[in-house]
Amino acid sequence: MDSKNYHEDLSHIRSMMERSSRFISLSGLSGVFAGLAAIIGAVYVYFVFQREGIDYFDGESNVYSLSLVKELVVAGTLILITAVLSGYIFTANKSKRKGLKIWDATTKRLLVTFAVPLFTGGVVCLGLLYHHLFALVAPATLIFYGLALVSAERYTLTDIKYLGYCQIILGLISFFFLGWGLVAWTLGFGVLHIVYGLIMHKKYK
């Protein structure tokens, strides 16, 4: 009997330590919705290219007008807002069901760790746009996003680092196939997010 209580106490202590050091309320469904938003956005961008008579698969030979760049930036911003809002809603609901705080010291550390490589990548992408190196933007976003996920792993679910590794590998590969950047971006931010989200939802629901 004492041995049973001892193991139960250890399990309880381990659970408390995990809750205090890691943000464990991240919802798998948020990944699914982020992936769907990315795919819808990629389809929209593809038809924008069609409308402008641009063959994206030409890679480096494409030249974008300022108005087109602005339209693409707006589309990317809307995708990001949709992903963030859906992530917050699903994660907040999961935290409420588990009786956990969504905003604490761990959450702050997670956001800072995640934001540093993401912000750096954003500045790099702006530099690429400024120098009209449009074909490099999609690979760069995948790589820096993957680095952000791997960095954030220490403060949230360990599984997220595997999504990060996949994003980095996909981004590195797409650097050598510049005309297929939109396809790689769709696979990374769309398909991989959906697959990851469904796996995490089933594993941690």
TrEMBL record:
- Parts of the chain that traverse the membrane: 23-49, 69-90, 110-130, 136-157, 169-199
Keyword entries, A-Z: Membrane, Transmembrane, Transmembrane helix
Q: What is this protein called?
A: Uncharacterized protein
